[in-house]
Amino acid sequence: MTEETRIQPYKAGVIDRMRKLSAMVGSSGSHDPEAEIDFRYVLRVLRDRFRTIVTATVTLTLMAFVVSLFMKHVYRSQAIIEIKEATPEIESLQQLQTRNPSSDDAVATQIETEIGILKSDTLAREVLNQLQAAGQDKPGFTLSGALMAGWGAFTKWFAGNNADSAKNDEAEAKAEEARVGAFESKLKVTRVGSSRLVSITFDSGDPRLSARVVNAVLSTYLQLHEKSTERITNALDQQVQEAKKELERSEQEMTGYARRNGLLYLQTDNGTSQNIIDQRLLGIQDELTKAQANRYQKESIYKLVQKGDYGSVPGVFQDNLLQELTVKIADLKRQYAELSATFTDSYPKVQQVKSQLAALESVLARERARAVATVTNDYLAAVRREALLVHEYEVQKSAATVVAEKSNQYNILKRNADTDNKLYESLLEKVKEASLITQIKANNVNVVDKAVPQFFPVKPKILLNLALGFIAGLGLGIGLAFLQDHLDTTLKTADEVDRFLGVPALAMIPSVESLPQLVSNGNNHNGNGLTLSDVFNPSNLSKREQSWYRIDKQIHQEYSPLVEAFRTLGSSVMLEASGRKRTLRSLVITSSQPGEGKTTVCVNLAIALAQQGKRVILIDADLRRPSVHQALGFRNIRGLSSYLGGLSEWAPCVLPGLTPGLDTLPAGKPPRNPVALLSSLKMKTLLDQALEEYEYVIVDSPALMPSLADARILASLVDGSILVVRSGMAPREYVIRARRHLNNVFGVVLNNMDVRSPDYYYYGYGAYGYGPRNDDQEPGDDSYGEKIAGL
User: Fold this and answer.
1) How many domains does the chain have?
2) Weakest mean pLDDT among 245-249, 584-588, 607-611
3) 133: Cα separation from own chain's centroid
4) Could you tell me if 501 and 560 lie in one domain?
């Protein structure tokens, strides 16, 4: 076998050692295997259910297009107004000048208020009345509004026929409500972004009518705005007149009461009025307080004088004369003491000092007596003044009490008059400014754009509807695709085989229908572009063989995806055999149900092993529906059933194949009891003897259903079993049940795989170009060799 035609196992190994190697290589990468598997799963579902997705997308897109064609055209006119900063209803000029800019919240509140007015039922009724007067009272109402209006008219007519006024009023109210509701459903008032601009739009089937309605709404809104300012001015004038009358009445009532009760009030410095009696009482009280303080002072001095403590008495007892007399007397006493110590009283000097001392003491006594008399007189005068003031205070207090009783009512009347006066003055000030305020408020709304007819319809939006229909259809189609895939319980990928069966996929055999018309897609190494008819040429096969695909009968067989797949299967079996602790030379090929391609797999596996230099015998043990002879072009005259049924030797029944190293034991004529023959000792003897002469014994077994016993008997006689699963055909439950009944299954062959599937390419089965190897290629550019050598 040449280097070009020798087949190596694929990298996406399904054998244990290859799976370990793949795990080691994958662990060093940075990609997420789970995410990659999920991505492949999504691609597979989208590819397998592509027709469902396309059907749903096209259907909903066409439906959106048809609905758009039959939708009524709607025209929209728009007016733009600017709402300036709001001014309070009545505000002083100073407040207007010192006003700070409004905050965003205040602006939003103001604009929302104006929008609410524009969308109010009152304005809607006013506009409808204007349109009705002009004969344009049907501005494109909604169907629900029209039905409500019709129902209101019918109930009104019915109520009129029954002369029931209550029902008639109710019917009119419902009709009016329906009319207003229909109008408001077409009217849209929105703020333009975060600006002070407000958009007013109206939808109608008539573009001119739409513009007229918007302008009518705008003019009605401005009229209501002006009327509101006029109402404010008129209300202020009326309030001023009422306040003036109330002030005059309260002042007359206050002055009349004061006159009748002899109350006289004077204006104080702080602007308030006070009763004369109260003022006098306060004055006497102040004088009495001062007199009592003076009396306390005089009394304290008087008591000190009575005790003889002249030194502590301030004022008269501390004048210069008394102090000089006291000093001189002290000096004379000192001289007298000094002289008395030396001389007698008869000594002239002593006599002189003594006479001077007596004279000064006499003068001091007179001065002190005069001072005591002064203190006593001052004290008595203070006592008399205090007594007089106390008497006067009591008299004035009695008079003030009488006046206070009369002043309570006067004060009440005065407060009312003061309040009325303040209100009147405030209203006068606001009336003076009302004209300016009214003008400012009237200019609060500015018309930026009036509505003009727009002859391009805003509905239906065909492109938008088509886009929405396309998106909805695509979403629905994808949803249905995943739903169908969820409900599909067949096995389709190697991952599903590994997950549900617990055994690897030894190979994935592509379906002929999914092979591209140009196998190499123009990328073969020599550029010859082999077609599918070149790979599978029925002219080379007999009529019996034309419905069977064999890798030994293909033109350019080394470049066919089918050939590569079956040779991969052969390599996988050999690697599996070399990796086991016990031998794996006898194999049973079976499936869960008929029609999954087990015989094709069995025949081509035997051929692949033989092409790799192995001696192989292929035994057709499907005694119920034998077909190996048809695939190989033999006549089924005698075979396994002949030996099991009576022949002593099985060798005469063996037929040599066209492939060197491959012999075939056909099934022979169908027996009556296949189970008994397969379970006989001769069958085990045959397999044992075949293993002595051949390296591999391949047994084609019946499907597990309906002949469950045949496959189980054969599986118990061989080293291992291979389960053939047709991709997208075999229900998962059937395959799992088949796997459970066969204990020695070491691998699965996924048959009839779509080569366009991302799962097929993910496992490396689509990684080859088809065509002869270009020997002139540089080794570094040999992608074919790199893929095989690295697997």
Assistant:
1) 3
2) 245-249
3) 50
4) yes
